[in-house]
Amino acid sequence: MKLKLYILPAFTSAFLIVAGCQTDTHQPPTSSLTSASTTTPAAAPATAANAPTPPAPEASVAANKLAFPIRINAGATASVKDATGVEWLGDTGFSGGDVTERPDQQIANTTQPEIYRSEHYSMDSFTQKLPNGKYQVKLHFCETYDSITEPGQRVFTFELGGKTFKDFDVFAKAGGFAKAYVETVPVEINHGQLDIKFTPQTENPQINAIEIIPIP
Fold first, then answer.
1. What is the DSSP code string of the chain?
2. 19 within a domain of the structure (yes/no)
3. What pLDDT does residue 31 have?
4. What is the pLDDT along the chain (216 residues), one digit of tens a residue?
5. Which pTM does this prediction carry?
6. CA–CA distance, 206 with 33 (Å, rounded to integer)
7. Residue 169 lies in a domain
8. Beta-carbon contacts of residue 186 (< 8 Å; ≥ 6 apart)
9. Domain assignment present for 47
10. Is residue 40 part of a domain?
11. Predicted pLDDT at 12
12. Torsion over CA of 171, 172, 173 and 175, rounded to 10 degrees?
């Protein structure tokens, strides 16, 4: 039989194939090869760049879900619309204390009596994440605990925005029992969070609602 001219290239190719088989001593296991050859790509391992970021804990309304103004009805088990049609969120953002509702209580000095029929009391603090900027914070109070019948029977201190309100007496401020009172405090946020601290003096601190309104 006569040899054809292409035998040398064929021999060279065969040699290369054999050489490749001999030198490839670090081939991955068969299962890895099979997985790699499928049409569905394998999931990339989690790294610092693509690993999912765990959600941050929420103290109150999350900063990325804010709709201003923020209105919180302290002590309420669910959101509520007041008589003016404004919606208030249920109780959130407080640390410590307890809640109560007095749904039949008549409230004076307001067009929004619904928000004064529940309260959060004996709390240590309130926290709300906020974008940095200037805000008007409205604190709504009303004395509806029937054991408080005169000034001086509930006195406490609260602090926010670098301001301290010492010897705060809801009954005295409102001018009597079941009368609404609003304390408006301008606040500048520069650390991404509103903090209100409450300290008891006589009886427990209490509050009925909080409004947070951005100042343009």
1. -PPPTTHHHHHHHHHHHHHHHHH-TTPPPHHHHHHHHSSSPPPPPP-TTTSPPPPPPPSSS-GGG--SSEEEETT-SS-EE-TTS-EEBPS-SEES-EEEE-TT---BS-S-GGGGSEEEES-SEEEEE--SEEEEEEEEE----TT--STTSSEEEEEETTEEEEEE-HHHHHTSTTB-EEEEEEEEESSSEEEEEEEEEES--EESEEEEEE--
2. no
3. 37
4. 444 444 444 434 433 333 343 434 333 433 333 333 344 444 444 444 444 544 444 456 766 567 899 999 999 999 999 989 999 999 999 999 999 999 999 999 999 999 999 999 999 999 999 999 999 999 999 999 999 999 999 999 999 999 999 999 999 999 999 999 999 999 999 999 999 999 999 999 999 999 999 999
5. 0.72
6. 67
7. yes
8. 134, 135, 136, 137, 161, 215
9. no
10. no
11. 41
12. 80
Residue 169: C-alpha distances to residues 58, 80, 139 (Å): 31, 27, 13
> Within 10 Å of residue 205's Cβ, how many Cβ atoms?
25
Q: Residue 146 sits in a domain of what CATH number?
A: 2.60.120.430
The predicted pLDDT at position 59 comes to 53
pLDDT, residue 61, reads 73
Instruction: Give the domain extent around 119.
Output: 63-182+192-214
Give the count of domains, the chain. Answer: 1
60 exposed, middle or buried (CB, 10 Å; 0-12, 13-18, 19+)? buried
Calpha distance 120→173 (Å, rounded): 18
Owner of token pair 């997985």: 35
